[in-house]
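4.2 Preliminary Data

To establish feasibility before requesting continued support, the project team ran the inverse folding procedure on a target of 202 residues. The structure was first converted into the token representation described in Section 3, and no sequence information of any kind was made available to the design step. The complete token record follows.
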């Protein structure tokens, strides 16, 4: 057992329930295909890591899906908002005797193993590691203990989340990773040829 744990938060890939902002531009079916593509990318990147992995499902745990390998342990998210759900997942990680816990989402095409490895490495000398997203949120959060303020009083899904989080951490040491772009709206994919297969432009 590693002393490092990666949490992956994932939505159940169901039509009309994932990438809803993106779907407004490319339709529900294409948005679902994009999300499945991003899930597979996340799996391929993370399964190479020398850390344990817990996959947290948004609705219910699924069997016979891409996470059905011994590398991935499956859990269900619990809580009324994203903050509560993340806090509970971190708490479970530390209760299971991990020293460092890092969380990522499952909709980041730019995510590479080096970002996760660096997060664990930087936790050696920092209290918190954050991977900033271009939209003002963050794609990665790394902790050595639960810091409750991080998960409370945030407008999740808005451009204020990262700054509000940093405001809560002014008395702690924080390392910021490279800024990356997560996939939420059409503009996030329109200039990337890898996504051309999922939609048609007029």
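Position-by-position output of the design step:
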């Amino acid at each position: 057992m590693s002393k490092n744990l990666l949490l992956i938060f994932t939505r159940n890939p169901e039509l009309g329930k994932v990438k809803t902002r993106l779907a407004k531009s490319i339709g529900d079916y294409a948005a679902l295909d994009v999300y499945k593509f991003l899930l597979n990318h996340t799996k391929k990147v993370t399964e190479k890591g020398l850390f344990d992995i817990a996959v947290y499902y948004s609705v219910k745990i699924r069997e016979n899906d891409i996470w059905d390998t011994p590398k991935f342990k499956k859990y269900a998210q619990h809580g009324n908002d994203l903050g509560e759900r993340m806090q509970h997942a971190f708490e479970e990680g530390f209760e299971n005797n991990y020293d460092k816990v890092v969380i990522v989402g499952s909709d980041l095409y730019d995510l590479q193993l080096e970002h996760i490895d660096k997060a664990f490495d930087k936790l050696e000398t920092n209290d918190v590691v954050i991977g900033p997203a271009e939209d003002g949120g963050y794609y990665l959060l790394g902790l050595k203990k639960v810091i409750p303020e991080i998960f409370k009083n945030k407008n999740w899904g808005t451009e204020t989340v990262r700054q509000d989080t940093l405001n809560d951490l002014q008395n702690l040491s924080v390392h910021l990773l490279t800024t990356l772009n997560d996939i939420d709206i059409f503009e996030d994919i329109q200039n990337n040829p890898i996504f051309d297969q999922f939609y048609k432009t007029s």
